[in-house]
Please model this.
Amino acid sequence: MIDKKKNTIKVGTVFSGIGAIEHALMRSRIPHDIEFAGDIDKFVKQSYFANYKIDPGRWHDDVEHFAIHEASKHYKKIDLLVGGSPCQSFSMAGKRGGLDDARGTLFYSFAKVIDEVRPKVFIYENVKGLLNHDSGKTWEVIKKVFEVDLKYKIFSKVLNAKDYGIPQSRERIFVVGFRNSKVKFEFPNPTELKKTMQEFLDDYVDEKYLLTEKGIAFVTNEIQLKKKYTQINGKIALCQKRNQQSNWHGDFIDEKYFLSKKVKQYVLSRGTKNYNAKPETDLKVARAILQTCHKMHRAGVDNYVTYKYGKIRKLTPNECLKLMGFKDFKIVVSDTQVYRQAGNSIVVNILGALLKEIKKTKVFDL
Ligand SMILES: C[S@@+](CC[C@H](N)C(=O)[O-])C[C@H]1O[C@@H](n2cnc3c(N)ncnc32)[C@H](O)[C@@H]1O
Model:
């Protein structure tokens, strides 16, 4: 008989955001219990509770309170702890470099949680820029805290989402730490990217995502297009940011191009032998609207309008979530909040690949 308890890993997250590791565990079908999670942002909490099973008593808000008062009392025997502390670095000028020198920073709170719950494994994620901050001193201190103060064996590497199946160029530093110093761990090998951003786009997009004339003039301006943070119809999305899609920087889709390609490939085909209909778009009188029209039938069945020049749009919140590796994620907050939450998150596919490698080390009782 399978020992259920033994086959379920206990997970804790801090700076949980929209639960990238929770989503990765679900998708990897790894049995797990969420022992604790938390985030200071009330909209993040709404998204989290709509998507994961967690007892409200196991949620904490401010990590600083959690680290000091809660963790040590309640949450022993955690298998996996995950957190990407917001990049609020600290200067090491004139200091020796140890846990106490990071006091007052969110990294310190993360380290304190490790110290209190002593997970078998932790994953720490941050922006790549952390490596160069303060001429590399901050990173040296972080490593020292993990290795010397907390006594974990750590492995670190910069990973890019586009090497793990997601068409988004997003580089992040990942640290995987093991309580057992004898563990041998290898980062997952990069894989060939088989999908373009176009394959992550929604078939139907509300008009509200179309840019205004001013927006179109801005993003199509040659000066903007030369900059690295704006692109139209890119194959690989730019790195998503928390303020994405609101300032005309980031990824934009020229609907004329995108839909016309789809129209050519599928919508305008006449159908098969058993089903043959004359494909026509831009009808003056619409065909009967089918309840299932979101499934995108051929143009002989559904209504299609071809877009004229000037239909450039932002990515939708759902597309941003998909480009972070979230599938079937329930959206319960405003667009602005979803853009922030997606931009702040960790790419689910990278975590899935890391979990696979961590499992190989046999540190979990799975
Ligand atoms: C870079 S994001 C990490 C997101 C997360 N890793 C995910 O998968 O979505 C940082 C998160 O930390 C949260 N945060 C910032 N300060 C905090 C604090 N003092 N206590 C708890 N959470 C905090 C923010 O609200 C934000 O959601």
Q: What stands out?
A: The pocket of S-adenosylmethionine is lined by residues 15-20, 38-41, 44, 62-64, 84, 86, 106, 344-346 (CB under 6 Å). The mean pLDDT is 84. The chain is about 30% helix and 15% strand. The first strand starts at residue 9 and ends at 14.
